[in-house]
User: Fold these one by one.
Assistant:
Number 1:
Amino acid sequence: MSEQSHYQYNVSMSCSGCSNSVSKVLKRLEPAVSKVDISLEDQTVDVFTSLPYETILEKIKKTGKTVNSGKKL
Amino acid sequence: MSEQSHYQYNVSMSCSGCSNSVSKVLKRLEPAVSKVDISLEDQTVDVFTSLPYETILEKIKKTGKTVNSGKKL
């Protein structure tokens, strides 16, 4: 099994439709993405994955949402 | 100048954040996409483009929004 990383991205999401879209796109990457936690209140997207940080970032950007920042936890 | 087509897609969008995301992603395709009209009320995305129907469809799907139908007008 490949090593898992935990990344957190700050993403502008204004409704549950927005956050569901981000979730849906990231879950298409299963099993390379093992878990996605989204908080609309905190405007955060937590991703547990074996994929690189940049790969996930690009995928989120393709949803059309603005990614304000991101980090490895 | 290449021939322009007008496609209309029915897309589930629940807020202006949702529709802005779709708009933003499609406008990245300029100048191959010349115009994007989105109606949140009608749940429609109208695209004027020289690109194929499927190319635009795939781009919208990557936003994580559900595309219910689409047609060439």
Number 2:
Amino acid sequence: MGRKGSIELETSEINFVIVGHRAETSPDFPLNDLCGAAGRWDGLARCINTALLLSHEIRKDTNIHLILLGGKDPPKILSVSGHDVRYLNPDERSTAALMKKALNLPLSPSLRRPLCPSPGLNISRGGLDEFIDGMEGRAFLLDEHGEDIHDNEVADLLLKGGPPLFFFLSDDMDLSVEERGSVMKAVHGTISVGPRVLQAHQVVAVLNNILDRTRN
Amino acid sequence: MGRKGSIELETSEINFVIVGHRAETSPDFPLNDLCGAAGRWDGLARCINTALLLSHEIRKDTNIHLILLGGKDPPKILSVSGHDVRYLNPDERSTAALMKKALNLPLSPSLRRPLCPSPGLNISRGGLDEFIDGMEGRAFLLDEHGEDIHDNEVADLLLKGGPPLFFFLSDDMDLSVEERGSVMKAVHGTISVGPRVLQAHQVVAVLNNILDRTRN
């Protein structure tokens, strides 16, 4: 974070929150068209991979939460815990197939308790506001117009108070005005990882690397 | 690179070189099993995505070269130019499908001139040694045991002399002793992006972010 060796983030729980604006919420989307008919589940699958998977192990201190807003049965919140998840492979297709198990569970509008279709997966009825209502920790919005994460003040802001940390990212679409309003009420700041506008999974990779360095 | 604002990498040509040890070299691999029967084409597709694609544009100053060593017709060198490529979508499946167009071209053992099956794609007969023989630029091996890329001496080594730059990475398998020997003769140093052992596309994301900062 620009002050090598001086920052230590101890036992941590890192949470990535990805808003999937068009992501299909019913389990009948085609695995052969993740980019199209599935509403960009390809990008969400890459986020799951990059958030949770190292080369040959799983980041047990990291979770990812998908806010699924598209398709036939929105909204849904699908969380994957690095500590508990099983049967997770690195490729987009098998990741999306595993997530379909969660989408296959019937969720009544009034359901508040998450259902667990497979180890480490939890799904519940809700959108961004419901997720934020249940969130406990320090949160940040990742945004191209945010403050540079390598700025010392940002590093202080990020690490002050310690984990759990929540990082909100949007998929290939910008947050709507309403969504941004909800998120801005919940976060401690808006941060950027660099000068180019990256795909969400690329931002996750850079963030994980920065956090890895704080915990080394 | 640890010295914010003091380093400038001007007009650049960045090259990622990924060794795909088991990557299928004939075009008949199943798009439904990139992770298995295709010999980890899922990982190569993610590397292509992360090397060349930003959120909504292409990195025109970046190329990726795949050294394909597996399957029924090895070895092949498949290069994708960010400047020229067309029809490249972000998902693994369509990326692999596009690359099949190159694998479908017949390559005689003696062929030296690359063939171009689609804009920005070039394929030729050869492996790691042939690629290195034809390489012109400053090269580095990315490796978990390398020097930290944020070390000032590494930053100097990396940027001294300017582009074109070549970054060698392996897929999910380590380089063999012979492969490592070939690469070590060609590179200026071995560098690591951080304390955890990442997937190749995650390393590419971190490297691109670091290079973006030098060019901002």
